[in-house]
Design goal:
- By secondary structure, this protein is an alpha+beta fold.
- 20% of the residues lie in helices and 27% in strands.
- The strands form three sheets. Strands 2, 3, 4, 5 and 8 form a five-stranded antiparallel β-sheet that branches.
- The longest helix has 20 residues.
- 22% of the residues are buried.
């Protein structure tokens, strides 16, 4: 209670000063300073709940319309913060392009944005980051990857990560947010397979998995 009264007095004093000098908008940031960060596992649980809702209700859902109402929650590995690591993006000179084979037997033209370098459980690793060839919107990076769970615990064709671009080149690489491509749920979708450089030689037991 003592801290609460002190904070209230400080806000009141700052409010009077702000009204004089025209800095009242600064006060909008003060309440945020007092908020405690949400537990990581809670953030992931909320994210997964939103994905389940999307699968059942969204018009863009890959689930056939007649199956959406009874579609069960997706299956996941247990949340493990050890699978959330910082990654440094090394830009690719010239943005070289390559073809990725897809689940329908087609070839998808992709452009390499760069290579993400990171350390996972003491092992240095890299993953290529891509965008669609010809795509002008560079705000998100596409990171398809394979690992030693493919074909047993996860889809044989690998899983995906999407990353928001950053100005620093440092990325929050969170495998707890890894997801299966839509072709797992609907064979009409055309899903790229990860290139050889993005097939990790370790099991990544984080993120979406096949039902047990």
């Amino acid at each position: 209670m003592r801290a609460g009264r002190h904070t209230a007095g400080m806000v009141a004093a700052l409010t009077r000063a702000a009204m004089v000098v025209g800095l009242l908008p600064i006060l909008l940031a003060i309440p945020a300073c007092n908020k405690e960060p949400r537990p990581y596992a809670e953030e992931i649980a909320e994210h997964r709940a939103r994905v389940d809702q999307f699968m059942r209700e969204a018009s863009e859902s890959p689930i056939p319309v007649e199956k959406r109402a009874t579609f069960p929650p997706l299956s996941y590995f247990t949340v493990d913060a050890a699978y959330r690591v910082p990654a440094q993006l090394e830009p690719a000179p010239g943005g070289a392009s390559l073809e990725m084979p897809t689940s329908t037997g087609q070839k998808r033209q992709m452009r390499r944005v760069g290579t993400l370098a990171f350390t996972l459980k003491g092992q240095p690793m890299t993953l290529g980051a891509f965008v669609e060839a010809g795509q002008e919107d560079m705000r998100r990076l596409f990171v398809p990857f394979g690992d030693l769970t493919n074909g047993t615990e996860t889809y044989p064709g690998g899983r995906y990560l999407d990353l928001d671009r950053t100005a620093t080149g440092i990325y929050d690489l969170d495998f707890n947010r890894a997801y299966h491509p839509y072709c797992v749920f609907n064979s009409s979708y055309d899903c790229p397979y990860p290139p050889a450089e993005n097939r990790l030689k370790v099991p990544i037991r984080a993120g979406e998995r096949l039902p047990k």
